[in-house]
């Protein structure tokens, strides 16, 4: 039996929970980054839905319209900019649309695709996240937030293993240029989100070798070794 008062007023947004009443759709292929965003959304009071691909996101958008759409630009089945374009052209459009990437140079790409703003991953703080969203919702006045300790918003490190396993599967397959492109951008974002400097540097080295047209076998082998090393370490814990 539901003993809630049907005439009770719903909680109002506050400085600590300014997103009460908002629904946010997070489109992010990294489980670690997605979990970090989930914690930010929940701390802010928002309802959250998640998708890990364009296909899944479109399925969500076919049945409901979120207040806020957060889209990673590099997804396994295409560019997140396509989804931002569709959300901006919809009638009515999704009210607030933000592109995301670990590569800050892609901000212009997100804005050109129809985003209202851009978030660089990993997101620096809860206050940064809240301000970026509230700026795109003019009917909600920005509110100051007493930010909780950073460790409260840190995802479970075990989730990082899922992303590493995805990368290992890609590396172990028949990689064409498209798969290699995806691997580089995926691992670059994952490593930055998790604060894994050695993996980030190895990914950057592979990306640099590709840009310069140099042989990349050694760089790819080093990257594969780091991924397997982390998977082995975590399996042993």
Automatic annotation (TrEMBL):
Domain of life: Bacteria
Domain Response regulatory: 23-136
Residue numbers carrying 4-aspartylphosphate: 72
Keyword Cell wall biogenesis/degradation: no
Biological process, per Gene Ontology: phosphorelay signal transduction system
Keywords, comma-separated and alphabetical: Phosphoprotein
InterPro entries according to UniProt: Bact_response_regulator, CheY-like_superfamily, Sig_transdc_resp-reg_receiver
Name of protein: Response regulator
Organism: Rhodosalinus halophilus
